[in-house]
Amino acid sequence: MESSEERPISATRYLLVAAALAALAALATLAASVYVQDSGAPSDTVQLLGPEVAADDESQTTVTQSGRGLGRSAVPSVGESTQLREVNSWDRATVVSAYNEEFSRTEPEMLFTGSVSSCTAGSTNPEYRESVIQRVNWYRVMAGLSPVSEHAEYSSSNQQAAVMMSSNGTLSHYPDESWSCHTDDGQASAGTSALALGIAGVGAIDAYMADFGDSNLEVGHRRTILYPQTRLVGTGDVPGGGGFHPANTLQVFDSEVWSARPEVREERGFVAWPPSGYIPAETVWTRWSFSLPESDFSTANVAVEGPDGMIQTDVIARIQSDGRSAPEASIVWHVNGSTDSVPFTPIPTDGQDDCYFVTISGVKTNSGNDLAPFEYTTCLLDMSLPGPGAQATTRCPDLEFKAWSTPCWSEPTTPSTPFTDVSRSDYFFDPVRWMTANNITRGVAPDRFDPNGLVSRAQTVTFLWRLAGRPAPSADAPTFSDVLPGDYFYDAVRWAAENNVTTGFGAGEFGPHRPTTRAQFVTFLWRLADEPQSDGHNFDDVTAGWQQSAVGWAASSGITNGISPTEFGPDMAVTRGQAAAFISRFANGL
Questions:
Q1: How far, in Å, CA of 132 to CA of 558, rounded?
Q2: Among residues 68, 160, 86, 79, which one has the least CA distance to residue 121?
Q3: Phi/psi of residue 577, each to 5°?
Q4: Residue 235, SS3 per DSSP
C-alpha cells in the first residue's frame, strides 16, 4: 500500500564531543575571525545578565564562567559590513555564504571616547555599533525574524549603563545611586537590556545566544534577541583595561514590546534555535529552545531524531507567558545528555550535513486547548565541505528509450525536505526528497508540498518531462486547442504527445486541468518505459482492457502495491504524494 512504507534512517552520524567548558571554546571558535578588543581586565571571567520586563522582579541571573583569550587579529580580514534582510534557510549555498560573510569580517575599532575611571560614558564608533547590531540581525534573520535598527537614544543610555557595569565590576538590572558612575539614564537602560561583563562587541552577542551557565537555563538573552516584536535596539560597549572589565549592554525591548506580533517565517508561528533549515554547526550550542506565544509547555515533551536514530533529550526549562525576560512562552532542552561541562558539540562527519528531526508534543494554549505536535528539521552544516554545497551522489543509468535517454539523477544530500507538510513517517518522505533533489517538483509553495492534493494531467506530464531531462519537442510535435504557448506545460505536453506517452483527451484537447487517475498515471509511466511486458496483477478492481498491461507492469516492478492487497483504485485521482512515490520508484528501478 502506498501508505505503509517504513520510516527511513539516515546513514550519517552525529558526533558528541565531551570537553570541559567547551561551550566557551565553541564561542571562541565562532568568533575566531571577528576579533574583539583585548580585555586587559583583571580576570578572564564572563558574566551575563538577561533583561527583565517585569519591573518588580529583582532577581538576578548572573553567571560566571571561565573565559577565553580574545585578541585583535594582527592582519585584519577584508570584509564589507552586510546587513541581511531575508534568507531561505533551505538554500544551503545561501546559508553558507551568509555565515562566511558575517563570520569572516573584522570587527571595526571600538574607538571608545569615554573613561571608566572618570565615569565618562563617551561614545563608540558608529561602525562598531552597526557591527554589533549586524550580528544581532544575523541571528534574527536565520531564525526567520525581521532585522532591527539602532535607536540613537537607546545606545546613548546603553553606553552609560556599560560604564556603570564595568566600573562596579558586577551586573544588575537595578543599579541605584550607591553605584559608582551612576546615571538615571544608565539605570533605566540596565532594566531593559541584556548585560555582559568580561566581553564586548560581537562576542557578547554570541555569548548571549549561547546563554551558558546554570543561572541561564531559561536562555533569556537568546529569547529576547529573538523576540519578534522588537524593531529598535541600542548597544553600549567599553573595552576594559586599567583594572576594569570590558562590558556590553544591549537594549532589546523597545516601545513595540507589547504590540501585535508580526509574521515570522514558520507557518505555525514558532521561533526556534537552532532554527529549521540549514544552520552552521558552529552556531549551535548545548541548549536548544522553542518559543510560541500564549502557549502552555507545562506538559510538553521534546523528541529529537538524529542521523543515527532517536537521541536523549532533557527538558531544563519551561517558561510561560508571564512577561519576564522574554514575553513568549518557551521550552528549553539539552540534547544527548549534554551539560555546560559536557556540552553537545555538533561536528558533522563523513562529508555530509547532520540533520535532526524535532517533535514537540503536548503543547496547549493558555486556555487549555491541545495543539497539534510541532515538527521541524534543523540540518547542521559541515562547513568543511568544498564549494557552495554538499557533494551530491549521482546515478546515471545510461538507458535509451524511444521518447528519451535517461539523464543522471542526484541523490538527496540531506535527509530532510523544505516542506512543513511532509513528515519522516510519511510513505512519500523519501520520494519527495528525491523529486526535490532532481528539480522535478518545487512544491506548491517554498515550504509546502501539498501531498494530498490531486495531480492534474498537465502536472503529470510536466513531472515526467522533467524526469526525462526536459527534452525539447520537435517543431512538428502535435498541438492541442487547450494547450497554448506560454503555459508552463506547453513543451511537456507536446513532447509527451509526440512520443505517444499521451494521446490527448479527444476532440483535439488534452484536458490539462482534469485530474489524473491512478490507472492513467501508471499508463503514462508504462509508455515512457516503451510498454514492457508484465506478469499480471492480483487487483480485483482493474477490469478495463487498457489498464491491464500497465498496472500489471507497475505492480511487478514495485512501482505500486495498491491501496490494499486486492485493490489498486484505478479510477481514483492520484495524489501528489502518490505521484512522487510512483516516479521515484520507477526511476530508481531502472
A1: 57
A2: 160
A3: -65, -45
A4: strand
Give the separation between CA 191 and CA 174, rounded to whole angstroms: 6
Q: Residue 152, exposed/middle/buried by CB under 10 A (0-12, 13-18, 19+)? A: exposed
CA 82 to chain centre: 21
Please say whether the dihedral angle defined by the alpha carbons of residues 224, 225, 227 and 231, taken in this order, is positive or negative.
Answer: positive
pTM: 0.63
Q: Across the strands, what pairs with 147?
A: none
The residue ranges of the chain whose pLDDT is under 50 are: 1-45, 53-82, 323-326, 387-390
Neighbours of 553 (CB within 10 A): 23
pLDDT of residue 29: 30
Contact indicator for 127, 81 with CB cutoff of 8 Å: yes
Segment 474-493, tens digit of pLDDT: 999 999 999 999 999 999 99
Q: Which of 175, 149, 148 is nearest to 161 (CA)?
A: 175
Q: What is the pLDDT of residues 175-187, one digit of tens each?
A: 999 999 999 999 9
* Res 535: pLDDT: 82
Cell of 433: 526528497
CA distance 19 to 339: 10
Each residue of 497-524: b (16+ CB within 10 Å) or e?
Answer: bbbebbebeeeeebbbebbbbbbbbbbb
